[in-house]
Design a protein that fits this description.
Shape of chain A: globular
Radius of gyration of chain A: 19 Å
Largest interface: A-B, 43 and 42 residues
Structural class of chain B: alpha/beta
Number of strands of chain A: 2
Strand content of chain A: under 5%
Shape of chain B: globular
Distance between the termini of chain A: 41 Å
Number of domains of chain A: 1
Number of helices of chain B: 12
Strand order of the largest sheet of chain A: 1-2
Oligomer: heterodimer
Order of helices and strands of chain A: HHHHHEEHHHHHHHHH
Helix content of chain A: over 70%
Largest sheet of chain A: 2 strands, antiparallel
Largest sheet of chain B: 7 strands, mixed
Number of strands of chain B: 14
Chain lengths: 290, 389
């Protein structure tokens, strides 16, 4: 039973991070290589607001969420907007540069020391006993719950929301969407905002569960594998890909060798690229354009 | 026209020369490569900050032999390729006569290769001491860092054997980097010799999203003690994951620079840290001195994390004093081979280097833990010396 819980928690981490990759790729065909850094920045923002609003955890969390959304929008407005019309590769390289910048700023502002937002918020993280003798920490349970909520909200938003429908339209054909009066800049800014927000939520919950340091960047990068396995333009794919990669990783740790945990996500990815390069739920034509 | 062109060119060259960072001709130039950013920064950046703090204070007091020390600090993000590039630049461009490294063990090989090529001594500070500094030591490698392969495990296992009230079933946790893995393999072998029963060993990759799967495997092996010798992030996150799974055994971790604050955060009476540095809760005069200096300089890391860098500074001062002025790499190496530095209570004894021993002649260990009854950090075991042979 503990194995199932472990797989679920790791899958939730990957899924929450992977949906950020999907949101941006889906509307703009850009692979955001700074997603891990943005997730880490969101967690550091929570740490900062928790330090500023001592005794008001709800205010601190709300502020961190708003700031994360704002950061995402600003990244688009200030930097990525200028990449419109340029080669996709140029946009990807820009995201790499953004990542390097964020890593530098994080050390300058918060230092490289490990931080503990949970302590700053004055929260505790007790274990919850589950059936079959399994246990899960409160923060990990919250992470799983938040993944369900985020994916539910994103599906509803893209299916029924007017901005969500516009976002899908912009992703399918930017030219036609623009001709129909859809403000592409607003759509892209929203996609960057939502992507950074979901990544930041993942970052905040990981930081609450096990502390905050710069290793989160690498975790963000590892979540790229589930996004690709599922298909870069599919939210369902990100969810399924996360479950597959997390399952393979946890089972490899338990039954083969813990050292494989680093390699397994990319082995699964490699296998998927050989068998079905566009991913489980990705569309073939989308990938051809890359 | 030609004169005008020549003048403009000279002016431009002068401007370029002024814009480039200059290396002082009238100072001891020391190169430092450290993991100032990146995943290992939490452990490896504070020693560099501590060294800078010490050197700034030393320079303000007139320097060494009447000359200032100029530190050229570069970030290698714990990446071997960047560390190699830093070493090459510091040795060939900046012509440093001593190189200091504070980074992960994976950066050692390329940096050592560069220092050998340039015949310049390398001082490892805040980065784990490799076996090459033990007798008979490699000519160019020296180490001031508290932790060291082999001796640390022996001390930790001896403490466990002495403290355990029942037969010990021991688990091990390492990070998937060369020295951590090597040390835990060594500890596993030593445990068998010491009559402890090894039940599991987890080697955990550095970027891990969730430590619970590794902790689950450890817990399933049912150890009553676990020893971890790895960067702090692996040591503490594995422990916390074990506790969340309901494991109630005793855990011994190497006391990295984060240990003091973390003992107070975890408040767990069965979490021990073993190390060669005294903690600031001992409140020695040298601790107060570091705290005061840190306050004045507004450093980014807590004062209790600056010990390694401060000790590095003490050793650097002693070496340069002995090397005299003017100096070169050979004189510095000769000085390093004959130095004894009083650590003023930061360690259990002095750092003493000779031609054959670039580590120390005697390594001291002390164990701390959180005492729930006193609600304070206490010594679980006072200094125990180990002769380095």
């Amino acid at each position: 039973m503990q194995l199932i819980v472990n797989i679920t928690v790791l899958a939730a981490i990957y899924a929450l991070l992977a949906c950020g990759y999907v949101l941006i790729y889906r509307v703009s065909r850009v692979m955001n290589m700074a997603h891990g850094e943005l997730a880490m920045l969101g967690a550091y923002l929570l740490y900062t607001t928790a330090s500023l609003f001592v005794g008001h955890p709800i205010v601190a969390i709300a502020m961190a969420v708003v700031l994360s959304l704002t950061v995402g929008v600003l990244v688009y407005v200030v930097l990525m907007r200028r990449m419109t019309g340029e080669m996709v590769l140029a946009a990807i390289l820009t995201t790499i540069a953004i990542g390097v910048l964020i890593r530098g700023f994080v050390v300058l502002i918060w230092s490289g020391a490990q931080q503990h937002p949970l302590q700053t918020l004055n929260f505790s993280n007790p274990s919850i006993a589950l059936v079959g003798g399994a246990r899960i920490s409160t923060c990990a349970a919250l992470l799983v719950l938040m993944t369900v909520v985020v994916y539910g909200a994103l599906f509803a938003f893209l299916r029924f929301g007017s901005w969500g429908i516009r976002m899908r339209a912009a992703g399918q054909s930017p030219l036609l969407a623009a001709q129909r009066g859809i403000n592409l800049n607003a759509i892209y800014a929203l996609a960057w905002g939502l992507s950074t927000l979901t990544g930041s939520i993942a970052g905040m919950l990981i930081a609450l569960d096990s502390g905050l340091d710069q290793t989160m960047v690498v975790i963000g990068l590892k979540a790229f594998a589930p996004a690709l396995v599922g298909g870069l333009d599919s939210l369902v794919g990100a969810l399924v890909g996360s479950l597959i990669v997390a399952g393979a990783e946890v089972l490899a740790i338990h039954y083969i060798d813990p050292l494989l945990s680093d390699v397994v996500p990319f082995l699964v990815l490699l296998a998927m690229l050989i068998v079905r390069p566009w991913g489980l739920f990705g569309t073939r034509e989308e990938l051809d354009r890359v | 026209m030609l004169r005008l062109l020549t003048g403009a060119l000279t002016g431009a060259l002068a401007a370029v020369a002024l814009a480039c960072p200059t290396v002082a001709q009238d100072a001891y130039v020391v190169g430092v490569s450290g993991a100032l950013t990146g995943p290992a920064a939490g452990t490896n950046a504070p020693p560099v900050e501590g060294l800078r703090l010490y050197v700034d204070r030393l320079n303000a007091r007139g320097g060494v032999n009447g000359k200032k020390i100029q530190l050229i600090v570069l970030d290698d993000q714990a990446e071997p390729s960047k560390a190699a590039a830093n070493a090459k630049r510091l040795l060939t461009q900046d012509n440093v006569r001593l190189l200091i490294l504070s980074s992960l063990s994976s950066t050692y090989a390329p940096v050592i290769a560069e220092t050998k090529r340039a015949n310049v001594p390398l001082m490892l500070m805040g980065a784990v001491c490799p076996k090459e500094v033990y007798p008979p030591a490699e000519a160019l490698q020296f180490c001031t860092t508290a932790y060291a392969g082999g001796y640390d495990s022996r001390a930790a296992l001896a403490f466990i054997k002495e403290t355990a009230k029942e037969p010990v079933r021991i688990g091990f946790a390492a990070m998937a980097i060369p020295l951590s893995r090597g040390e835990i393999d060594y500890a596993e072998g030593q445990a068998k010799t010491a009559g402890l029963t090894p039940v599991d060993k987890e080697v955990i990759p550095p970027p891990t999203a969730d430590y619970t799967p590794f902790a689950t495997k450890l817990k399933d092996a049912d150890p009553n003690w676990i020893f971890s010798w790895a960067p702090w992030v692996t040591e503490v996150k594995t422990f916390e994951a074990l506790r969340r799974l309901g494991w109630e055994g005793d855990y011994v971790a190497w006391a990295h620079i984060e240990a003091e604050a973390e003992l107070a955060r975890l408040k767990d009476g069965k979490f021990y840290v073993i190390g060669a540095n005294s903690l600031f809760q001992d409140n020695l005069p040298i601790h107060r001195e570091i705290v005061d200096e840190a306050k004045k300089s507004n450093v980014r890391y807590p004062a209790e994390q600056l010990t390694e860098g401060w000790i590095g500074g003490l050793v650097l001062e002693a070496v340069l004093t002995r090397a005299g002025w003017p100096t070169d790499a050979d004189k510095i190496r000769a000085a390093m081979e004959n130095v004894k530095v009083d650590t003023q209570g930061l360690r259990g004894g002095p750092i003493e280097w000779s031609k054959d021993n670039h580590f120390r002649t005697r390594q001291y260990y002390r164990v701390y833990r959180w005492d729930p009854a006193k609600s304070a950090i206490v010594q679980a075991k006072d200094w125990v010396p180990y002769d380095v042979k």
